[in-house]
Amino acid sequence: MTTKMWTDDYDDGAAAVDASLDRLGLDYIDYYWLHALAGTNYENVQKVGAFDFLVQKKEEGRIRHIGFSFHDSPELLERILKDHPETEYVQLQLNDMWVHSPPLGAQANFN
């Protein structure tokens, strides 16, 4: 089972994880991710300690694997992975059109 947490509109991530578990009627979630990390919402993730409470929920046995979906530049992806080695997987959105017009204002070189 997998589900995600939106990264731009939450105050208490641990409560969001518990709410997901309750709604799904599960004791644990196999893959839990922070959804759509990019630019400013990554700064919010850092500010609220989102990875920290996901690690805590993993230690409690409520989450089996921690990851995120990503929608920005290769440079930001590298930064996030360096900042958070606890990350076990990343879902990348990749579109050939981005080679000529990067998403979300990213100034990436995909060549």
How are helices and strands ordered from N to C?
EHEHHEHE
Q: What is the helix content?
A: 25-40%
| Low-pLDDT residue spans | none
Global structural class: alpha/beta
Number of helices: 4
- Kindly state the mean pLDDT as a whole number? 84
Strand order of the largest sheet: 1-2-3-4
- Biggest sheet features: 4 strands, parallel
Q: Rg from C-alpha positions?
A: 15 Å
Q: How much strand content do the residues show?
A: 15-25%
Distance between the termini: 35 Å
Number of strands: 4
The best one-word shape is globular
Structure overview:
- With 111 residues, the chain is of the alpha/beta class.
- The protein has 4 helices and 4 strands.
- A 4-stranded parallel sheet has the order 1-2-3-4.
- The radius of gyration is 15 Å and the shape is globular.
- The mean pLDDT is 84.
Show the helix and strand layout.
Layout: E1 2-6, H1 13-24, E2 29-37, H2 39-48, H3 50-59, E3 63-70, H4 74-83, E4 89-92
Short description:
The protein is α/β, with parallel strands linked by helices.
State the main characteristics.
111 residues; four-stranded parallel beta sheet; alpha/beta; 23% strand; 4 strands
